[in-house]
Amino acid sequence: MQPVRFLDRELFPWLVSVTRGLSQVLSVPAEDLLPVPSVTVGANTVLRSWQRHVKPDSSQRAAILSVAYGSTKKLLRRMAEESGFQVDEAVIEFPLGADAEEKMLASLEGCLQPTTSLVVLDAIPSNAPFVLPLREAVALCRAKAPQAFVMVDAAHGLFSLPLKLTGPSAVPVDALVTNCHKWFCGPKGTAVLYVAPEHKHWVDPLVISHGYGSDFPSGFYWPGLADFSSWLALDEVLAFWDLVGLEPARIYGNYLVMDAATMLSDAWGTSLGIPAWIWRYSQAVVFAIAEGLCMLCSYVLRYTYDDAEAVQNALFQRKIEVPIKVLSENLYVRFFEALSTWILQIRRVVNVIKGTGAGYGGRVYCITKGV
Description:
- It contains eleven helices and eleven strands.
- By secondary structure, the chain is of the alpha/beta class.
- The chain folds into two domains: about 5-240, Type I PLP-dependent aspartate aminotransferase-like (Major domain) (Aspartate Aminotransferase, domain 2, 3-Layer(aba) Sandwich); about 245-365, Aspartate Aminotransferase, domain 1 (Alpha-Beta Complex), CATH 3.90.1150.
- Helix 3 links the parallel strand 2 and strand 3.
- Helix 1 (about 5-25) packs parallel to helix 7, helix 2 (about 40-55) packs parallel to helix 3 (about 70-85) and helix 8 (about 245-270) packs parallel to helix 11.
- The chain is globular, with a radius of gyration of 21 Å.
């Protein structure tokens, strides 16, 4: 009997093999890529390490988008209470128009200051799934807040976007974290954290265990006894994408996006909230998964969370599970389209939401830029 043979002798080579496969997808050295259970854990790892390293005070500021992920906002709020720094939000107004990217960047520029020492950017915000012009946003941060540490929350980015962390098409971020369990089709409990080499010396894992102190990756590979089956299953996911091809899948998904957008706008009698040329021909939005926002307009000028919850519950009773969000005091339906989505499913959502929207006295406007 050798009860610890797998954990002691076989597990880590498999984990390293999976990390190497993911490093090829992201074009980054495997030693710069770390396994974490989720983007939330990865973000906490980096931001708490930043807090210990920088020791920010009331003279410093952090910048985020107004549509940043909720748990990130809560974490930064807690850190600000502990350390005294100010958190500024770049406000994104909805609906987005043809000049959306210019307005996003202008809003970000407006909240960046020389004293901004931390910036968290959402590559694709969860509640408002548009694609941030990431390269331009990072360049703006470097110009307006040259001392800032820039972390990208790319929870929805792996596969949806052609993320590259080195090479001519790379976005020069200080840290990036992305989930494998979303559009990359991996099991839940799998994500990866990238930390630029110049920052490795001060980024520590949330859990200090036996691997800590030997080298940078080892501190993250063993957080204590855990179930590593999800991470090991990524080996098959990588094999699947090698067979199918990431780029062909993104191209196929682009057609799904266009079909869904046409169906929604025709059925609801609206035009696209964002001109098709922005998302159809941009490299950042040619992908196999489409998430969009549909605005439920009515004669009521301001909506609240309670209104969104009421609509979402009404749809749930009709066996439709879709999130309803409040953005700029309007109600939005967030929908997505994946390789496994049937067009009949989209048609059913169209009809059900159309009926629900009519109950709110208004038309439904489709905003399809996003993931």
